[in-house]
Amino acid sequence: MEIIYASIGFFALAALLGMYLLTFVLRGKETPKAIVFTHGPMAVIGVVLLIIYILKGGPNPWESLVLFALAAVGGVYMLYRDLTGRPIPKALAVGHGLLAVCGFVLLLVFAFS
């Protein structure tokens, strides 16, 4: 069960960085690339740890994984737009965050209930 707590920790760090990045997107400012290139890998590590936990068997937080996967699709698209100098749609950034937060809350409920 410890691996799920590590996953939660990485997702929490990714969420904090994501909230910081969202402030730049909502103000129409350029995102700090060091934070961009830290946020994504933190979330990816969280997903990988979650997949490892799921593959071990037993009851699994599939819903969280699906929501994180959907958020990741939006995240990759935003990264592409950011790196090509195009503005990131604010609705997409907010939707990405909401999907991830919902996945995170479901993961917390699963882990601590």
Describe the structure.
The chain is built from 4 helices and no strands. The two termini are 13 Å apart. The mean pLDDT is 97. The protein has a single domain, classed as Four Helix Bundle (Hemerythrin (Met), subunit A) (Up-down Bundle). It is elongated and about 45 Å long. The longest helix is centred in the first third of the chain and has 25 residues. Helix 1 runs antiparallel to helix 2, helix 2 packs antiparallel against helix 3 and helix 3 runs antiparallel to helix 4. With 113 residues, it is mainly alpha-helical. Keywords: Membrane, Transmembrane, Transmembrane helix.
The number of domains:
1
Helix fraction bin: over 70%
What CATH first level would be assigned? Mainly Alpha
> SSE string, helix = H, strand = E?
HHHH
Measured between the Cα atoms of the first and last residue, the distance is 13 Å
Note the overall shape: elongated
Q: What is the name of the CATH architecture?
A: Up-down Bundle
Structural class: mainly alpha
What characterizes the major β-sheet? none
Which fold name corresponds to the CATH topology?
Four Helix Bundle (Hemerythrin (Met), subunit A)
Short description:
The protein has 113 residues and is mainly α.
What's the structural blueprint in terms of helices and strands?
Layout: H1 2-26, H2 33-55, H3 62-83, H4 90-112
Helix pairs in contact: 1-2, 1-4, 2-3, 3-4
Spell out the key features of this protein.
transmembrane helix, transmembrane, membrane, 113 residues, Four Helix Bundle (Hemerythrin (Met), subunit A), mainly alpha, single chain, elongated
